């Protein structure tokens, strides 16, 4: 009896050891496989603070590294078109002509909403308000001094200095520029006729700087300057943010709430939509989605199925679990309707014609 018990106990111990060893090996091999995968993206600086946080959290959770280069939306689109990155980042959706030139079908996956703000460098950095007409006239060079009566009429209790206005704008191809010039083209016929909208435009004047960090840095250094940046860059640098008059005549300061309200409109299935100059009574007028761009068919240029799967998993995580990181960094999370559109788009991504997400 004692011998039988010993043999039974030994058998159980062997089985338990074998099971534990198999479990350890499976975990190790899954971890090793995940850590061997690296996804590469490039593009918009607009969402970079959020992407940096998301990609670090995703690596800690999954072991999958994401290398994102914030080179501007134009650069991100070029690299995606050349198929040298796994995904591009852009604050401007690609138009039909651009999509027609792509080597394969490109999808737009919105990740969050952000606000483009006017910021400036003045003594004491007072809280200023601007109408659409004021913004256009300053950027077109019609208003040259901070003491101009038209600025004072909108800001009657603020004593503005009698110094020149210097405009700072992006020097690189930029989705932030597209969002801002798209807004200006909607509110000023003269701007639309003379300058227009685009990721890069011929500015009437001013100083150019690369990326949101470059514009914020130059404004902070030079008194009398005014320019546009994504909201988080103004906050990170302790810079003032102007309130803008929206379509309904209300002066609105950018916030997560007012940016979210700007997206309270019907969305197309491909999510390519301009949200600037929103009809929402309390919506901030220079708001936009920022998108990740990827190919619908992932089997290209000897691309592995494993890498394609990891890209789809990343996109799903960013638009679901990753949304918890948005508000603390002054971005607005995706509305429920946008999440539904995103899920449908993610499920349409294929490898050799077969959906990756079953």
In the CATH scheme, the class of the largest domain would be: Alpha Beta
The helical percent reads 40-55%
Number of structural units classed as domains? 2
Please provide the count of β strands: 13
* Element-by-element helix/strand order: HEHEHEHEEHHEHHEHEHEEHEHHEE
How far apart the termini lie comes to: 54 Å
* Annotated CATH homologous superfamily of the largest domain: Periplasmic binding protein-like II
Count of helical stretches: 13
CATH fold label of the largest domain: D-Maltodextrin-Binding Protein, domain 2
Which parts are unreliable, with pLDDT below 50 for 5 consecutive residues or more?
Answer: 1-34
Residue-averaged pLDDT: 90
Let me know the largest β-sheet: 8 strands, mixed
CATH architectural arrangement of the largest domain? 3-Layer(aba) Sandwich
Rg calculated over all Cα atoms: 25 Å
Shape: elongated
Structural category: alpha/beta
| Beta content | 15-25%
Strand order across the biggest sheet?
Answer: 2-1-3-11-4-8-6-7
């Amino acid at each position: 009896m004692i011998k039988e018990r010993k043999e039974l106990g030994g058998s159980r111990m062997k089985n338990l050891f074998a099971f534990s060893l198999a479990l350890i090996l499976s975990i190790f091999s899954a971890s090793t496989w995940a850590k061997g995968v690296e996804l590469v993206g490039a593009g918009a600086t607009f969402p970079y603070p959020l992407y940096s946080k998301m990609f670090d959290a995703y690596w800690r959770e999954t072991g999958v590294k994401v290398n994102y280069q914030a080179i501007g939306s134009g650069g991100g689109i070029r690299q995606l078109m050349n198929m040298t990155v796994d995904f591009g980042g852009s604050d401007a959706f690609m138009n039909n002509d651009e999509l027609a030139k792509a080597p394969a079908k490109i999808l737009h996956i919105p990740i969050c909403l952000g606000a483009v703000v006017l910021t400036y460098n003045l003594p004491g950095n007072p809280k200023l308000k601007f109408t659409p007409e004021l913004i256009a006239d300053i950027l077109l060079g019609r208003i040259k001094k901070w003491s101009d009566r038209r600025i004072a009429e909108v800001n009657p209790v603020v004593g503005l200095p009698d110094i020149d206005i210097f405009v700072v704008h992006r020097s690189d191809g930029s989705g932030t520029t597209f969002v801002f010039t798209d807004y200006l083209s909607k509110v000023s016929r003269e701007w639309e006729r003379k300058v227009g909208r685009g990721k890069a435009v011929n500015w009437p004047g001013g100083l150019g700087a690369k990326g949101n960090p470059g514009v914020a840095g130059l404004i902070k250094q030079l008194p009398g300057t005014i320019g546009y940046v994504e909201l988080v860059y103004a906050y990170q640098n302790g810079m003032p943010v102007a309130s803008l008059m929206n379509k309904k005549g209300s002066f609105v300061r950018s916030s997560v709430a007012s940016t979210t309200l700007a997206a309270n409109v019907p969305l197309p299935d491909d999510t390519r939509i301009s949200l600037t100059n929103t009809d929402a009574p309390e919506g901030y007028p220079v708001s936009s989605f920022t998108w990740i761009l990827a190919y619908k068919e992932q089997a290209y240029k000897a691309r592995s199925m494993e890498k394609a799967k990891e890209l789809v998993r990343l996109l799903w995580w960013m638009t679901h679990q990753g949304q918890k990181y948005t508000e603390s960094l002054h971005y607005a999370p995706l509305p429920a309707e946008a999440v539904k559109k995103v899920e449908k788009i993610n499920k349409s991504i294929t490898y050799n014609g077969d959906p990756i997400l079953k």
